[in-house]
Amino acid sequence: SSVFSQLSQNIPLQKSTAANIALPKPTFQWSRNLNNIIQQTPFVENSRPNIPDDIETPLDYFFELLQTLVFQTNLYVTQKNIMRAQVPTTLEEIKCFLGVNILMGIKHLCSYKDYWSSREELRDHFIASSMSRNRFSWLLGNIHLNDNSVQPQKGESMYDKLYKLRPMLDKLSETYANSYKPSRCQAIDESMIRFKGIISFRQYMQIKPIKRGYKMWVRANQSGFVSQFQLYTDSRGNKPRKRVVFDLTRQLVGKNHEVYMDNFFNSVALQLNLQKDRIYSCGTARKDRKWFPMDLVEDKVMKRGDYDWKVSDTGIIALKWRDNKPVHFLSNFHDPEDVQLISRKQKDGSRKEYNCIGLVKDYNQHMGYVDKSDMYKSCYEINRKSKKWWHRIFWHFIDLTIVNAFIMFQENSSTHGKTFSLKEFRLAVANGLIGAEPETPQRGRRSLEPIVNKYKPYVAFERRVRRTSKTAHMPIHVNKVRCANCSTKNEPHRTRWHCSSCNVGLGLTDKKNCFNLFHKK
Question: Taking the model in full, what pTM does it have?
Fold first, then answer.
């Protein structure tokens, strides 16, 4: 019988936790024996959104934290005794507040106050008519998610660095996990939440597009749907790489999923533990990791497309493949002799084919699921700065929830016969929260009644100066003369328009503007 069957018979499946992840300390025997590789069992689970039958509109996919948001916000202002003349917020007002913020992610202005500006070129009439600026500012400063009066202090057993966000994080963790049945291939990677303030668990990652902020571990599906996440807050105790993959894969145990990860997490011991849980895994690896074989071909001997591999007696594959530079991989289910061809561009512009292992192609194909989710989130995101450390995380999860809802809605669109782009979906969610009906094009001739402007027309200072100082060349209407710009002996053109400064005739019609062309020469 195979090594995999022996493992499954001798070691019972159990769902490990962060506190119960004692990694084994075996001695691995590396060879080139392909018989040690386990045979992959087909994936038979049904991957799809787990959507109730009563879900019909994009708003129905939105999260269910609004009532908590209303209660905790009113509690916070009461505890701080800052209610004064302000009335308590309501569920409808919180919906409108969130909808306005989502809309501001689509229509960007330098400051949120510009949406209520008296200058016509800045003012947004839809947002300004939805909520007053003072009320929006009040909600922005007082919105809350948890009771500060019972918050455990540092040093106490129940101390939680994410206490202010805990109700939201717990609810979303449950909702994400239950709303989508995982696909066959999963990816685990880091994601950054932008923040430049001072907080103990802020991270700096030089190679990331977002270099400063909060680090989050994410498991995403093929569609980009985020199924699980963990916010990184402390490096003490168990190292993240020893527990993150375990915590994020407990829902996949025994179901023959494929999990892809980068070299931050991957190790020989981790591959063996996932193999016992019937989770197929693959990823890049660091060559100095414990138990990684050291007798692979040296770098200086390898050319582009060359590779070398070893298989352990437990079925773990260690691969070294040369592209621009050597890359190391670990897998517990791939065939290292599955050689394919890839095309690479040369310095002279031509293309040349090189050997590539199927393991490498699978990794490149499936590792980008978390990046796909980040890409969706970066489009029309609520990029709101704040001195309060938890606001950035709050708005990040509002955006992430919309992205997850969008992915579910797209995959379920065949049932309802609707397809939205991401922008249309966000507009639908914003309109549903604000309470406005989406606009539909009206048939027939538009009304000719003039729109009444309630604000005094404003002319900027620069325009006023230009109006009085740069008016030398003005068109004047006189008798017909030849056009100084386009008239020729063979093809004469005559016009009644003259330049007041140049004293020449210049054509000025809806088809050709010789007046403008002449003064640009």
Answer: 0.77
